[in-house]
Write a structure and sequence with these properties.
The protein is of the alpha+beta class. It contains nine helices and 18 strands.
């Protein structure tokens, strides 16, 4: 009854090992193809430039300063002058003067205040303040005058918010990145020395001449003209309606001119595209800037402008950025603490045998408020007359510290006639 050629296995589902292998093989092929195509895409010259520019913008946007309505800055400044050509008495007077600065903004309510004070030998020289509200600027002269001088502004900034500025920033950033598609690129592979070793890098040269600059500018302006968000905000800034704003952008696009040649070169590691070096060359004025990664957290910048070379070294240690710059006449050291939001700066200028040191330090905050002043106690600046001027002169004579400074300067100048120094 039964055919002996059949077995139980004939009634079981047949194994699909061959089909599974084919599917797996195809998946691997597609995966590899995706990796290769992705690698080719990422290694396109314009894409590497776009990624680099994006990284720069990311650094800018990391700080909460970018997102804050309330920003304040408090700082101090002092000068030190030393040299054979400077009268010692004059030098001591200058070295005894220090400045203090405070700036506060409230972008949400369009408020701004700034104060500048000067101290001489622990006495107050002057204390000046500026305050902006409701499209009017108020100047306060401290003890010199008991009223504020009012200056009305023709520009109305009350309808522009921090959100509007962010929209403009984002749209301009996008337009700029897209415009890189229209640059002229040359790509090659070279060796670059890093940590005393030779590494292989992609060298990508972007040349911007008259033709490519027009194409890139057209790309930027066409994007902005088509952006309803940008047109809406920019019309507030220039105080025109949206049709006039569009026409303004068209005018800017037509009037754009660039007849020079600029070269920008990126050097990035093969495969990882880690940026190692940037060169900027302006062919017309023979100026250039080279940004070079020298170690994991250190960078070197060499700038040549008007036959003057400046070298800067940047060290990034966790949340502290330190920049040391040197040239034939200027040396500066800047230390910026991202956590403390503080900055210390010392700059030294050489003028013959004379050295001038400028010391700055400041702290900025993003949770401060603007100190308002009594705007009712104000007069328009065009109403300021001779009688008001006499009041200020009388108050100057009452300022003991200021009179002491003037007296010391006059005495030093008289003594200066005897030794023939500069001051």
């Amino acid at each position: 009854m039964f055919n002996d050629d059949f077995s139980d296995n004939d009634y079981l589902p047949k194994k699909k090992g061959g089909a599974s292998f084919v599917i797996l093989f195809l998946l691997i092929i597609f995966l590899l193809a995706g990796i290769v195509l992705g690698f080719i895409y990422v290694n396109k010259s314009e894409v590497i430039f776009q990624m680099t520019l994006n990284n720069v913008f990311d650094l800018i946007e990391k700080d909460d300063l970018f997102d804050s309505n309330n920003i304040s800055l408090n700082g101090n400044a002092s000068l030190e002058i030393n040299g054979d050509e400077i009268n010692e008495e004059i030098s001591n007077i200058i070295n005894d003067i220090s400045l203090k600065l405070n700036i506060s903004t409230d972008l949400k309510n369009n408020l701004f205040s700034a104060s500048l004070g000067a101290i001489y030998q622990e006495g107050n020289l002057f204390d000046l303040k500026a305050y902006y509200e409701n499209n009017s600027l108020y100047l306060n002269l401290g003890d010199l005058y008991d009223k504020n001088l009012k200056i009305e502004s023709e520009e109305d900034l009350s309808n522009i918010s921090i959100t509007d500025y962010k929209i403009m920033y984002e749209e301009i950033k996008t337009a700029l990145i897209k415009s890189l598609n229209y640059g002229y690129y040359t790509k090659s592979t070279e060796e670059l020395k890093y940590k005393n070793k030779n590494i292989l890098v992609n060298r990508i040269l972007l040349t911007i001449d008259e033709n490519s600059s027009i194409e890139m500018n057209d790309s930027i302006m066409n994007y902005l003209k088509e952006s309803e968000k940008f047109i809406n905000v920019y019309s507030k800034v220039i105080e025109k309606d949206e049709i006039e704003t569009f026409q303004e952008l068209e005018k800017m696009q037509k009037e754009f001119k660039f007849d020079g040649i600029i070269e920008i070169v990126l050097y990035s590691k093969l495969l990882t595209n880690e940026l190692m070096k940037i060169e900027y060359n302006n062919i017309d004025d023979n100026s250039n800037i080279i940004f070079n990664k020298t170690n994991d957290n250190t960078y070197e910048i060499v700038s040549n402008q008007n036959n003057v070379e400046t070298k800067s070294n940047i060290k990034i240690d966790k949340n502290v950025i330190e920049v040391v710059s040197t040239s034939d006449e200027v040396t500066s050291n800047i230390k910026y603490d991202l956590v403390k939001k503080s900055c210390e700066s010392t700059s030294s200028y050489k003028m013959g045998n004379t050295t001038i040191n400028l010391n700055l330090d400041f702290i900025y905050s993003t949770d401060s408020s603007v100190e308002k002043i009594d705007t009712e106690n104000s007069i328009m600046i065009d109403e300021f007359g001779e009688e008001d001027n006499m009041i200020i002169q009388e108050n100057i004579l009452k300022n003991e510290t200021l009179m002491k400074l003037i007296e010391n300067i006059m005495e030093a100048l008289m003594n200066n006639n005897e030794n023939g120094t500069l001051l």
